[in-house]
Give the backbone structure.
Amino acid sequence: MTQSFNLLDEPWIRVTWLDGEPGEVSLLTAFRDAVRISGIHGEIASQDMALLRLLLAIAHRATGGPEDLDDWRAYWANPEKLRADAGDYLERYRDRFDLRDPEAPFFQVAGIHAKSGKISDLESLIADVPNGEPFFTTRIGPGLDRMGWAEAARWLVHVHAFDPSGIRSGAVGDPRVKGGKVYPIGPGWTGQIGVVAVEGRNLAETILLNTVVTESLADLAEVEHEADLPPWEKKPDGPAGSMDLEPIGPVSCYTWQTRRALLHGDEKGVTGLFLGNGDKATPRNRYLVEPMSAWRYSEPQTKKFKEIVFMPRKHDKDRAMWRGLSSLIPQLIPKLKIKGKGEFTRYRIPGVISFYEKLLAQEIVSHRGVIPVHAVGIEYGAQEAVVSEHFDDVLNLPAGLLAPDNKRLVTLVRDAMEKTEEVAKVVRQLGGDLIRARGGDPDDVSSAREKAGVAFYLAIDEGFPRWLASLDGIEPEAARDDWRNRLRSEARRQKENLVDSAPPAAYAGRGEGRSRIDVGLAMKWFDTALSRALPISIISQQAKEKDQ
């Protein structure tokens, strides 16, 4: 009997149903029951995003692009059409979705092997098991000698998307092999960007909202859909990486074969794998074909290549997602003017966000309510060869914030962000002044300022997303004063914490005359600066008098 594990039939994608129950579904079931599924929820968020991008690649091919907004609207109005077309499409390529096919195994290379015959342990497949760092793992203890084919399938998709860089085993037949190894080509394609996805009320909506009609957006190239193919529509890969290839559209980005792999195992599960380097992709100016990332202007790359260069805006583990709103909302993006190159925006927003704006403008989706925007990324360590941090954050944006004609809401959010940073500076200054008052050196003062800012933002990072999500239908002036009052309250709380921790020497102070500084003066300067940053408005004053 032929060994088989076909992803069209076997349950392998971990999901949560709308009633909150967990489950595992096959590819066919994922599309068939997409309206009943809340979302993909596997081992880690980066795995969920890698699997979503796989579903999006299938959706793009099954819908024929979609070629235009009218085609897309037909699927949005009738999700059953997506179910039917995706099912028909998958059946046409049924044989290519078999994880154990002897000639063309899914996302693998049949027969690939190292000259030594050595295969890798399963730790190299799992992103939350960094070698030598077992305290980071969710798989501590026995269990890594073998895993089921369903779990291996999830991690295989993740490897192509997020695998760290590094030297990999050289495959027989790969001309890049030197001394039995192939040298680094970088992390998986998705690991090189900061992924952003728009979430719907169910999996069907999430798939459609991120199946971007590229022809409708100026910042994306007009993709030749017949050429933008996934691996299962092409001849099976061989051992060598194709160094002359590059992503030409969303489908090739979502399924880019960064590695050459082959799972080894038996009926009971997977016991090891060959894992080598595959196709290299560099991120420079890929905003034309990759819709699920924001992009930033890069001065060093622009100077190097003598052309305007945008690089992916990766997520920062030390900054909550809301602090990157200026790369998500077009009206918040700062402008750049460079001699000889003209004026342009510092950021390019993700194509999935631009597409949602288009849907709003066409009144295909509602201007009311909130839009969950999910950001996922991986931060790599030295030489990008190890996983050091995972980034996973969801921001609920008021739909009106993306409407091009809603200037009042944009002005409100811009003011809130600017005032938050102004108050953060006031808090940082107090932290540094209290260290100066005790006689601390410049390095101590700088460190104290940084710590005070971090403590302030830790508190604000919890409140700002909730405030942002509450803006739908609220009077802007009242919302503005509400946020300023929250900032004022939190700044004073931080002031109390900092002053309470000041040593007696700070109360005695340092210096004479105008250079004099002590706790009392530091507090006075703080109060003055805070009042300047957050003047009491008429509305706030009336509310204060009412409370009294």
